[in-house]
């Protein structure tokens, strides 16, 4: 896959039926990943979505407009080759999950955090057997080892494709709990994203919005939406 915009070199993109999987073909030639691996996915819906991304390219190929292709390549080139390392890195977010760190003031922000975040933590405690402790401000709190093990187990249980989506969600949301809530369909992607930027939006509404911050938040929203769409297509 081109790393930057290049001229479109094919006329037609279509889903490719393989023996036990699906791929994408450009003018009959199978698409490969940036690392040279075969683009093989088990879901026809995902393959169709990737083919549609290639077909939608105009005079130049814009990789940024092909999130399903990018995530599929990440799964094949990175996650499948470095699964143990990626599980460890992703599970580590549980030790300092965003939802555990609450503001001391103002009262309105404290109330919003409690109303939005606590139900998700309650879900993690009940459904994942991972109760987490709260901390005020930025002071670190040591989480129960049993809870961290439960969160790690939830990540380990994911196949390589779902792990790929979970990794992107965790990194962008800054919360393993929110990511798992999306993966397990407890939350839609939009409420999960809104929860992750609750503090930032509160401060923006109070003191004024910064254009760069708005653009960054929109880019993050797009990444979360893409990860959720990827998971839905599996």
Tell me what you see in this structure.
The structure is a single chain. The protein is mostly helical. It has ten helices and seven strands. The protein has helices at 44-56, 67-79, 83-91, 107-127, 145-156, 160-173, 176-183, 189-196, 198-207, 211-233, and strands at residues 6-7, 13-17, 22-26, 29-30, 60-61, 101-102, 135-136. The strands form three sheets. Strands 2-3-4 form a three-stranded antiparallel sheet. A two-stranded antiparallel sheet has the order 1-5. Strand 3 and strand 4 (29-30) form a beta hairpin. Helix 3 packs parallel to helix 6 (160-173) and helix 6 packs antiparallel against helix 10 (211-233). The longest helix has 23 residues, at 211-233. The mean pLDDT is 96.
């Amino acid at each position: 896959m081109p790393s930057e915009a290049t001229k479109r070199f094919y006329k037609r993109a279509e889903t490719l039926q393989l023996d036990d999987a699906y791929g994408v073909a450009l003018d009959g030639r199978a698409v490969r990943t940036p690392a040279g691996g075969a683009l093989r996915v088990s879901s026809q819906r995902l393959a169709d979505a990737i083919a549609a991304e290639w077909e939608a390219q105009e005079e130049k190929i814009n990789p940024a407009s092909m999130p399903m292709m990018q995530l599929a390549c990440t799964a094949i080139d990175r996650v499948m080759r470095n699964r143990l390392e990626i599980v460890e890195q992703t599970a580590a977010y549980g030790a300092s999950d965003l939802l555990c760190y609450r503001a001391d003031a103002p009262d309105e922000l404290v109330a919003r955090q409690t109303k939005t975040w606590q139900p998700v933590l309650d879900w993690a405690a009940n459904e994942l057997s991972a109760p987490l402790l709260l901390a005020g401000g930025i002071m670190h709190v040591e989480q129960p080892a049993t809870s961290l093990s439960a969160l790690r187990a939830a990540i380990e249980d994911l196949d390589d494709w779902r792990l790929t989506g979970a990794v992107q969600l965790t990194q962008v949301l800054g919360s393993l709990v929110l990511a798992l809530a999306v993966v397990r369909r407890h939350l839609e992607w939009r409420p999960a994203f809104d929860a992750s930027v609750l503090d930032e939006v509160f401060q923006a509404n109070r003191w004024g919005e910064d254009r760069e911050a708005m653009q960054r938040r929109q880019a993050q929203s797009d990444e979360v939406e893409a990860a959720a769409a990827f998971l839905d297509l599996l």
